[in-house]
Amino acid sequence: MKLSIIIVNFNTSDLLRNCVNRVYKSLNFGKIEKDSEVIVVDNASTDASVEMVEKKFPKVILIKNEQNLGFSKANNQGIRKASGKYILLLNSDTEVDKEALIKLVDHAEKETSFGAMGAKILNFDKSIQYSLGFAPTLPRVFYWMTFIDNIPNLTKFLKPYHIENSKFYTQKREVDWVSGVCILVPRKIIAKIGKLDENIFMYGEEVEWCYRIKNGGLRVIYNPEVVIYHHKGSSGGGKDAGIIEEFGSLIYFYSKYRSLPHLIILKILLIFGALLRTILFGIIVRNLEKASIYVKAVQMVR
Asked: Which residues are listed as membrane-spanning (predicted)?
């Protein structure tokens, strides 16, 4: 088996149907369907997702959970079930380009010493979704929290935690992490560095995973030739809604890999950044919904 595609689902029945449809079209286009498998892990959906998969896609390997286990645990279930040489984690709210899967496999076969590969992730208007970056060091968290890394032309010097410069996404690059929306990892690498950290429920799990991959002496590659489309936020709540979870994941990351002084400084930076955004959205922009999210983020960090 060449490729195992793992899709975690929670109440995204219509999007999941489109996702799996596009996956099979891409597999057929690349003539690799017979050497591939699709695994759907359902996290106790209540919207008839399970029935839809059973009816529309009988070839899919379906894992039905009785409760929502989160992104990491559910993907790990799929990884344990998978038999492919390459493991692709794919969000349920994505649609792959017809050439995407064969390009992923072909590039993976040609690359040496790579541990993870990500794709160019687009909105449906074909604009870039920012989906990769560099390790969350304290300086980079500071640049992120103070908006310094949004200043044009500084990306190549600062190497931001979140790269929000569309020019960066035009060519193949080595980075520190790529989005879990679409990430390909060879099975042998997972056997070496381990599966996703199940202490992370959702958001930030790919940063921690890629950190272990990089520490294992392997490369994390962004490949813009592989294109997927993503309904951003449909399966997880969106960038701002997920900020609380991302802050929590960063705190966990620092608790796991950094010293106590570094953890304390991180929390100070996160609180400062959240307060800054609370003022921005609450007073200047007058978006009280976003402001309330950052108020909750401050409370979580404290």
From this structure: 264-285
